[in-house]
Specification:
With 223 residues, this protein is mainly beta. Helix content is 13%, strand content 36%.
Length: 223
């Protein structure tokens, strides 16, 4: 009888230890253990900051027809975050600023879309958006993209003012990582915007030119 009681007591003790361990794990935020591990990359940022330390004007002006180079990066690397906020008073201006991204020295952009549409809001509007990959806040004025954009040789990000008025205050951050090498199966992010207004009856329109959002960089047929 004493042996049975002893075994029962041990079982209760082990069960209690298991509960305590589960409680300790539950109290630990998910994914935090990886924060202490060394990473195979270095983190960097380019932005619209003013080189004059005594100036608080950290924005760019984009004249009609002008193209601003937001980032000109050398690889291997990966853009992990882009933040943009703009002060513009032209009607539907988010569709009049054209965002383009060129990978590995290609002349044809792999991303070619209006700024507003790339950040998830169409029709030239400013609206809040809360998703995993794109988040817009402050009534749509602060736009954030977290789409991973890897490149092996280079990455050039530009924005062109296709409107009739100056984009007077254009702020941005581009956060990216530098790697020694990228895996062979790493794909590239592609995003295109095409519009015909009005649409013509009976005409075939290609809805998705790429097999997937991410794919290999084979766009020579576009040049």
């Amino acid at each position: 009888m004493a042996k049975k009681l002893e075994c029962s007591a041990l079982a209760v003790m082990f069960a209690a230890c298991g509960v305590l361990r589960c409680q300790e794990r539950a109290a630990e935020p998910p994914g935090t253990a990886g924060l202490a591990s060394l990473k195979p990359y270095s983190a960097h940022r380019v932005s619209s900051d003013n080189p004059n330390p005594s100036s608080n004007d950290d924005s760019k002006r984009i004249l009609p027809g002008e193209t601003l180079v937001m980032a000109d990066l050398s690889g291997p690397g990966m853009v992990t975050h882009m933040w943009v906020t703009v002060a513009d008073n032209e009607f539907a201006w988010p569709r009049l600023l054209r965002l383009r991204v060129y990978y590995d020295g290609y002349k044809t952009p792999s991303v070619d879309a209006p700024l507003g549409d790339f950040f998830g809001v169409g029709h030239g509007l400013e609206r809040d958006l809360n998703s995993m990959m794109v988040r817009n806040s402050s009534f749509g004025r602060a736009r954030n993209s977290y789409w991973p954009m890897p490149y092996r040789k280079s990455c050039r990000i530009t924005v062109t003012n296709e409107g009739n008025r100056q984009a007077s205050l254009y702020y941005y951050h581009v956060d990216y990582r530098k790697y020694a090498a990228l895996p062979a199966d790493m794909g590239y992010l592609h995003a295109y915007y095409r519009q015909e207004r009005p649409a013509r009856k009976g005409r075939y329109y290609e809805f998705l030119p790429q097999k997937a959002v991410y794919g290999r960089l084979r766009i020579s047929h576009c040049e």
